[in-house]
Amino acid sequence: MIGTNIRECMHKGEAVEEYCRRIAQKKTATAWERYEGDREDIAAVIGADTVVFLNDHVIGQPEDPEDAMRILMMLRGKCHEVITGIAVLIACQERFIDFAVRSRIWMRNFSQKEIEDYVATGEPMDKAGAYAIQGRGRRLVRRYEGSYSNIVGLPVAELKQVLSGLIPLV
Description:
By secondary structure, this protein is of the alpha+beta class. The protein contains 5 helices and 5 strands; from the N terminus they run H-E-E-H-E-E-H-E-H-H. 29% of the residues are buried. The model has no long low-confidence stretch (mean pLDDT 90).
């Protein structure tokens, strides 16, 4: 895995799916540019960007514990979306395929104490939306629709389906 350090900023008027796909493409292209190994052995390069989306706003990672509490209070009792943009660079053709996957999550109407206890674990601090459905944060979720792996951060089944149509098995 190659770090890319892409500046993630939404353009004015840009749809959230477009934004996720654009950032995923930038990450993929940057990783390909920085790769120093033998490129002949590379079938594809994959980049992804996942955001939490509520009321037409992207919710990123919390800056500090107080911000995590603010984000969780905002999500409490509501439905939001997790959107992942994926870009696949087909190396032999030097072309991109990109797509986005959306999932919907309904949060419980959890108490202030539950939020405080959860934030105290430190788990929310590096998570968009300040929770991890695959960790202790699952207690905050009432239900979800769509791809579970998308909510975690990479829609594996959807990616596998796209890759199986693009890259011949050797």
